[in-house]
Design brief:
Layout (H helix, E strand, L loop, with lengths): L1 E5 L1 H4 L10 H14 L5 E5 L6 H6 L10 H26 L4 E3 L2 H4 E4 L2 E5 L2 H8 L3 E5 L1 E5 L3 E5 L1 H12 L3 E6 L20 E3 L3 H16 L6 H13 L3 E6 L5 H6 L7 E4 L1
The structure holds 3-methylbut-3-enyl trihydrogen diphosphate.
3-methylbut-3-enyl trihydrogen diphosphate binds next to helix 3, helix 4, strand 7 and helix 7.
Length: about 260
């Protein structure tokens, strides 16, 4: 099994509300299709500008604060579903058989973390070799009323349960760097993090220290945190740049590509 995440920053323009990138999405679908052999696939996609812009504007990530937010929650949930439909359309046009799984029907959060997930919703379509497709969404939250459930968090739960051969995050950067880029500081791409090997533990400690201050730099360190959690259950993760042609294809094929690999 391979679990692939199409990052919201790849399939949409994160700065422009509702700007979907159909050609990029179509290319990514063709790439994994040509790379994959007989393995089962689960596809998870982010929300990009269909989810993040309104969520940030109305502080939906903080949970229920005022009744004014409710119409915005409803809107975001509709928007991410519309994005999901666009992706299903592309999958079907490429002769694949996706089955969409609405996160809020199968997931509950407690204080922003998944507390319940009904995996039979994935098992049954997979038994017939459908491709389950799910996405980042707003779900009900036992403590906060509602909260955001990212595609990455869903992947963490799926990876722990299904122990896939690989998780691949298609992002808009080449991988994880030693320091957040863009502050004039010298930074290098980390090719491999092996949680099981001695020397890398120093690197992990260094990155963990960096993560504490890296919140403002976007999601890549958060992604690394999730990948390290996934690695603890023995599953390998590749963080690659999905905006570069053929990188996803080669990665699915098992070729060495530019990116960060995290091993348990
Ligand atoms: C975010 O999901 C969901 C909402 C904002 C509603 P993700 O965290 O998986 O989305 P991307 O990949 O960052 O866009």
């Amino acid at each position: 099994m391979i679990i692939i995440k199409f990052g919201g920053s790849v399939i949409t323009d994160k700065k422009v509300k509702y700007k979907f990138r159909p050609n990029v999405t179509d290319r990514l679908v063709k790439e994994f299709k040509s790379g994959i052999k007989k393995q089962q696939l689960i596809l998870v996609h982010g929300a990009g500008s269909f989810g993040h812009i309104l969520s940030k504007q109305y502080e939906l990530d903080k949970g229920f604060r005022s009744p004014k937010q409710l119409s915005k929650v409803a809107e975001v949930k509709k928007d991410v579903r519309e994005l999901n439909l666009k992706i299903l359309q592309i999958l079907i046009r490429n002769n694949l058989n996706p089955i969409s799984i609405s996160p809020s029907s199968v997931i509950s959060n407690n204080n922003k973390s998944i507390s319940k997930i009904d995996l039979t919703a994935f098992d049954k379509p997979m038994a017939l070799q459908f491709i389950p497709v799910t996405y980042g969404d707003i779900v009900m939250d036992e403590a906060l009323g509602f909260s955001i459930c990212s595609g990455d968090q869903i992947i963490l739960h799926l990876a722990k349960k299904y122990k896939p051969d690989r998780v691949i995050f298609a992002t808009n950067v080449d991988g994880v760097c030693t320091k957040p880029p863009g502050r004039g500081i010298k930074t290098e791409l980390i090719e491999k993090i092996d949680l099981g090997s001695g020397p890398d533990l120093d690197l992990v400690k260094q990155i963990e220290a960096e993560m504490k201050v890296a919140d403002v730099t976007g999601g890549i360190f958060e992604k690394l945190k999730i990948s390290m959690e996934i690695a603890k259950s023995g599953v390998k993760t590749n963080i690659i740049n999905g905006t570069v042609k053929n990188r996803l294809r080669d990665c699915v094929k098992g070729r060495k590509v530019i990116g960060t690999t995290i091993l348990g």
